[in-house]
Every structure is written in structure tokens, then in C-alpha cells.
Amino acid sequence: MRWHSVNYKAEDDSQSLVDRGWWLSDLPRLMLICRLRGHRPVVDGYGPCEPGLHAARWIVCDRCGVRPSPQGSLDPAKYQVGDPYSGPWIPLTRVLAADAWMAMLGLRTAPVHDADKGKPGPYPESPRGAIGGQVVVGSRALPGFSIGFEVGNAGSDHMLDAHLRLGRLLAIYVHTEGYGRWVQRRLNPTGYESREVRLAIGEWQYRWALWGRSGYWDSAAPWWQQGYASFDLMERLFGPKRYSYEPVGDEQVGVVRMPEGDQHEVRLQLQRERLGRPRLRWRDRLSWSVQWTATPGIPYREGRSIDSWSVEVDDEVVEKGTWQVAALIALGAKMSQMRTRNGYRPRAEEGG
Fold this sequence. Notes:
- By secondary structure, this protein is of the alpha+beta class.
- 18% of the residues lie in helices and 39% in strands.
- The protein has helices spanning 8-12, 32-37, 92-105, 181-187, 233-238, 315-320, 323-342; strands at residues 2-7, 18-28, 41-46, 56-61, 128-137, 145-151, 160-166, 170-177, 195-202, 205-213, 226-230, 242-247, 252-257, 263-276, 285-301, 304-313.
- Strands 1-2-5-8-7-6-9-10-11 form a 9-stranded antiparallel β-sheet. Strands 12, 13, 14, 15 and 16 form a 5-stranded antiparallel β-sheet that branches. A two-stranded antiparallel sheet has the order 3-4.
- A hairpin with a 3-residue loop joins strand 7 and strand 8 (170-177).
């Protein structure tokens, strides 16, 4: 058993009174039924079994969610998710021999006998779990009220999550790692989308989720499963405040020359940007922005690039007809800042 705590207030210099995370790890999992009656192996995995489509199958205990080691790599054409599994297994003697070879030779992965490839091994004798959370008092907490409970999926690090947020006064978050597999296997056994039950009130509206997809807004979901309602009088009378973008003129082509020496061809589209309500158009806040696209993208860190973004330009450069130059300068400055933050310098052959 291990206890660990982090003072986030000291790390990010936040203005909250208290912001502390904590973990109680390396805890033994009880799994009383499995210890008394043994595990219940079933086939788990993802994907259909049609030829040409990616799919995978492995073994898991249907009660406690523990996977054997190795977990196995079965043929998706022969095994369906949820089917009981009775074997074959890697013999325990070969597993012990492989562990001995790893210890003697310092190997990172266990050697597998040709006859055992794809087979699952034995279940671990003492699976471990953890409980963690975070307590926030003060301005770091988001405004409004929220209470929720989340059930993870087969690939989640956090099996169960719960939170209570009382505006800027107090926020409490609790999660489990390993614990709660039985609940996940019963309520959300397939797929890789966590599910949540949540009620939130803030910013003149209340939102709810009743077994909705966690972290997603699904417009196709029924209203009772996921939705929101506003009690903002302005929104009721004049509609929600939203951004809208209207292309102006034809698309232009330019070359952005980065301070680091590389250059990239980009396509530029001037846009009239509006922020306002549908029934209060005369009060819209107007501005200009330029949407740019680059193929291939402009790199900002090793292995990462951006191929589309936007930059703001002011009324003066649009009136003078020099918005293209202003957009290229702003684009170069923005990308250079990102490179500096990520410690990136392009190679000589990049960007022509």
C-alpha cells in the first residue's frame, strides 16, 4: 500500500485556497467470489470478424475483469466477444520457465514457445488497484453546481468516477483504478466509450446526462439521455449567442516564411466574423479573420504539424487590401511561438 499526494496549487501557482490530488495505490483487490470459485474466463475484444476489418480478441474474467498474463491473441473469426473460454492455455510450467529466463538474461518481454503463441497464460495471483481523487477549494473550481457518476470502459484507467462541484466554493473528485471492474462488466461491457449520469447547473442553464457518452455531445441522442435547457431570458427572447463566419472574396495563395528559415505555401480565405444573437443582428460584434490551410501542414514539434487554423486581422488592413500580408505575418509569429514552447527547430530539408 502506498500513499501519494500532490499540491497542484504550488505547481501551477493557482489562486485557489486548496488544490490537492491524492492516490492510495498498490491496494489488494478482494475479488472474493473469484478467489473462492475461480475466475470465469470469457472472450473480450473489439471489431467485427469480417475479412479486411481490424479486430482483436483476448481473455478476461467476466466477474472481476482481470486479464491473464499474457492475455492471449485469439482468432476473431473463431471467437466472438462474450463467449465462454475453456482453453487452450499456456502451461504453468512454461510460464515459470519464461519468468526464469527473463530474470537470468534481463529480458524485457517473456519468451513464448511456438506452440503457445496466441494462447492466454495464467491469471495473476494478487491483482492490485488504487483509489485517487482531488479536492479544490477556491477559484480553481469551475463556477456552478455539478454532480455526476461515470462508469469506465474496457480500456479505461479509471473504472469508476464521481464528482461533486459547489461552484467556486468546493469541488471533490474521486476515482478508482482496478476497483469497479465488475460494475463495468455488467453495465458497460463492450466498446470503448465511458458512460455517465450527470446534472450540472451554471451559466444560466442546466445540463443533464442519463447514461450518455462521457465527454461527447451527441446531437443524435434522445433528449432524455443528454441535453440542456436555458433559463437565460436574453436567450429565450433573442436566441443563443453564437459565432458565425462568412467568406469574403476569393481564396488567395501565399507563402509564409518562418523565422527559423523554412517556408510553406498556404491558402488564405478572408472571413467576416460575427458574434451575436439571431434576433438581435443589429447588435452583432463584427471582426475579421483569415482561415488558412497548408498541405502538408506546418510542423511545430517533432512528428506534429498543423494544416488549418485562423488568425485575426483588423479593419485597417482589410480596407487597404493588405490583409494577406498581415495574415502571413501573424501566422508566422503564432507558429514560431508554438515551436519555441515545444523546443522545436525544423530540419534543413523541411519547408523547401
